[in-house]
Amino acid sequence: MDYPPVPKGKQPRIPTDDEPTEMPGAYPQTSQIQWPDVRYASGPPPEQPAPRAAGDPAVERLLEWGAGIDRSIVEINRKLDFLLLETKDFRGMEAHYRALLREQTSAGTALPNACRRLDAHRQSLLQTVQRLDGTVNQIEGLALDIERLREGSEVTVSIKPRRKSAPPPPRHTHHDLAPEM
Q1: Count of H helices and E strands in the chain?
Q2: pTM for the structure as a whole
Q3: What is the C-alpha separation between 60 and 62, in angstroms, rounded?
Q4: I need a labelling partner for 147 at 20 to 30 A (CA). Which of 6, 18, 108, 128 fits?
Q5: Looking at the DSSP assignment, which residues form a beta bridge with residue 104?
Q6: Is the Cβ–Cβ distance between 104 and 110 less than 8 Å?
């Protein structure tokens, strides 16, 4: 960026980062068509060229296309107005709740800290309830097992361990007792 010449003995003023920088002059020229400045659009509308013959299909399509564009612009403006109102409402709520968050509870705790504590207590309670639910399910299962045993519908089989002993003595038959020859 070029700065204007500075008289002798004076330092040029350099803009800081906090100041908005301005573009020199108007917006840069990007085309040969002179577009009207929308900030000053309250003047008389530019002259329209004379329409072509009413029966021309190209003119009809162009008019329909223009009407569609106009409807789209109206719809976009309606949505933008709605979004603007919603944003204003949200900013109002945000300011209201920001003020609430600065308040303290009756115990003297800042509201955000109290909310974090409540969230921690809630999480602890949920974990305790889940563990308790698991314990209740185990107790119900054991109660059903006890009830079945009382009814005698189950049979308990016990297996006694087998004693380890020497191999059985060989059996002798009368053929084994005959004298050898």
Answers
A1: 2, 0
A2: 0.29
A3: 5
A4: 128
A5: 110
A6: yes
